[in-house]
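Help needed: design a sequence for this.
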């Protein structure tokens, strides 16, 4: 049985990428240390109706692609959370998973209104990417009303 003390939750942005997996593990560990819950958020800014309006996709009215995408994403996040919890071990953490449409940075900021900490990954690709944050993490850092942790991608060390 998961113990939950009622403290403000930690919010983590997750999108299935390796970097968001690192952010998820960091957030889970932090939730264990703080004896609080975790809210895993996957935000997306793409829907079948939006794609259809641009002519990219034709979906019959009877086929609810948006619901199927949301459900599949929810299941993928649930698996990632379970794997991360097993990998970390330690105290169980109550986890709420949300898959929400909208601009990722705004969805994360809205989801963190009652949180104590917001955790996001930094995609960092290539030499230039390692020096910059992704657009979502940059927006979140600049507009958040609470502490934000940006978890960097792991960069392999290669001998010179």
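Sure. Designed sequence:
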């Amino acid at each position: 049985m998961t113990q939950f003390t009622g403290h403000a939750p930690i919010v983590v942005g997750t999108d299935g990428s390796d970097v968001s997996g690192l952010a998820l593990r960091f957030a889970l560990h932090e939730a264990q240390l703080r004896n609080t819950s975790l809210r895993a958020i996957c935000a997306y800014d793409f829907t079948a109706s939006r794609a259809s309006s641009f002519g990219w996709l034709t979906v019959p009215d009877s086929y609810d692609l948006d619901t199927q995408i949301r459900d599949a994403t929810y299941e993928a996040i649930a698996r990632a959370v379970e794997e991360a919890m097993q990998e970390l071990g330690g105290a169980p953490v109550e986890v709420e998973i949300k898959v929400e449409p909208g601009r990722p940075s705004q969805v994360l900021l809205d989801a963190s209104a009652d949180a104590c900490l917001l955790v996001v990954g930094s995609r960092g690709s290539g030499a230039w990417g390692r020096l910059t944050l992704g657009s979502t993490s940059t927006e979140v850092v600049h507009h958040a009303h609470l502490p934000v942790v940006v978890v960097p991608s792991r960069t392999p060390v290669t001998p010179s």
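Residues 65-88 form the longest helix (24 residues).
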